[in-house]
Amino acid sequence: MNKQLIDPFGRTVEYIRLSVTDRCDLRCFYCLPGDYRDFSEPEEWLSFDEIERVIRAFTTLGVRRVRVTGGEPLVRKNLPTLVTQLSNISGLDDLSLRTNAVGLSRQATALKTAGISRINVSLDSLRPERFKDITKGNLDKVISGLMTAKQAGFSPIKINMVIMKGVNDDEVEDMIEFCIEHDFTLRFIETMPVGDTGRSATSYYLSLQDVKNRLAERYELIPGVMPGGGPARYVQVAGTSLRIGFITPISQHFCETCNRVRLAVDGTLYLCLGQEHKFEFRPLLRAGISDSDLLEAARTAITLKPERHEFLEKPQQVVRFMARTGG
Ligand code: SAM
């Protein structure tokens, strides 16, 4: 059996973003509308056993890495139980979590014990009022979640900051100092036109090339460190252990090296963050598909992966909100 998933453009798919809920306890203005209610219903959610089956099938075909995301993954009940199930899948080498950290002080230790090795935390501002304006949430909870995660031994902890002109671009240096102090890795992200909210937020778009040029005036940035399995292009800040990754889907897209697909909580596999190409696993699972047919279905799904996103050419393209696939 061929143990690799190769898409029509010759790219090997070895990474799944796994959304365990589309619900979130924050309302970042560029992600989900404040009054959004159109979440998927619990009967549509894949059960933990269904998720395990799909991930097991993909792992059999060469997927090595899974990042648990949402919505906000920590609002899915009993998440550590799912993590334990996934961490027992042989061949899955890397199980990580993407979270807003609001609930992390309660769950960090249980998630570490269950098998999450690395976490990425979204944090757009270190100023309580501004954080509230952006997310409607409470910064104290996030900081305490982060500190609990640090104590629990997660390493590395990566901070993801969406940079928006006139919103938080004046905090880039503060975030750098914060990450140096706590030994976190920092990643900057450009706003993307995903959903109506994401499209409105592109009025705050700032090219990360400009941010990098600005930082280069103040810091010595050593390029090329830590080539990860993902899209971030890293630099190291000389004289510190800080690494900064730039994720530039708009100013310099990285589709030619895309190695990932995204499984939504209702069993829809999205083949690209910037396109609507998809494959539905839930009907197959609930119709009692066999393990061997599930492998075939996974292979078929990958044949649908498009070449690239078209955020610039067709910004209206993606109607779903980012909370559906978790970034
Ligand atoms: N709740 C988790 C979190 O906060 O990390 C996971 C889901 S959240 C949708 C994943 C990431 O997508 C967050 O870092 C968020 O800032 C980012 N995001 C949401 N909408 C975006 C947009 N329009 N452009 C760029 N990033 C976006």
- Major sheet attributes: 12 strands, mixed
Order of the strands making up the biggest sheet: 7-8-9-6-5-4-3-2-1-10-11-12
Rounded mean pLDDT is 95
Number of helices: 11
What is the architecture at the second tier of CATH? Alpha-Beta Barrel
The assigned structural class equals: alpha/beta
Number of DSSP strand runs = 12
Textual characterization of the structure:
By secondary structure, this protein is α/β, with parallel strands linked by helices. Helix content is 32%, strand content 17%. Strand 8 and strand 9 form a beta hairpin. Bound molecules: S-adenosylmethionine. The site of S-adenosylmethionine (SAM) has 23 residues, from strand 3, strand 5, helix 7 and helix 11.
In short:
With 327 residues, the protein is an alpha/beta fold.
Question: Which keywords apply here?
Answer:
binds S-adenosylmethionine, TIM Barrel, 17% strand, 327 residues, alpha/beta
How do the helices and strands line up, and which of them pair or pack?
Layout: E1 15-19, H1 48-60, E2 65-69, H2 79-87, E3 94-99, H3 104-114, E4 118-122, H4 128-135, H5 139-152, E5 157-162, H6 172-182, E6 185-189, H7 195-201, H8 208-218, E7 221-223, E8 233-237, E9 243-247, E10 260-263, E11 268-270, E12 278-280, H9 282-286, H10 291-302, H11 322-325
Parallel strand pairs: 1-2, 1-10, 2-3, 3-4, 4-5, 5-6, 6-9
Antiparallel strand pairs: 7-8, 8-9, 10-11, 11-12
Helix pairs in contact: 1-2, 1-10, 2-3, 3-5
The site of S-adenosylmethionine has 23 residues, from strand 3, strand 5, helix 7 and helix 11.
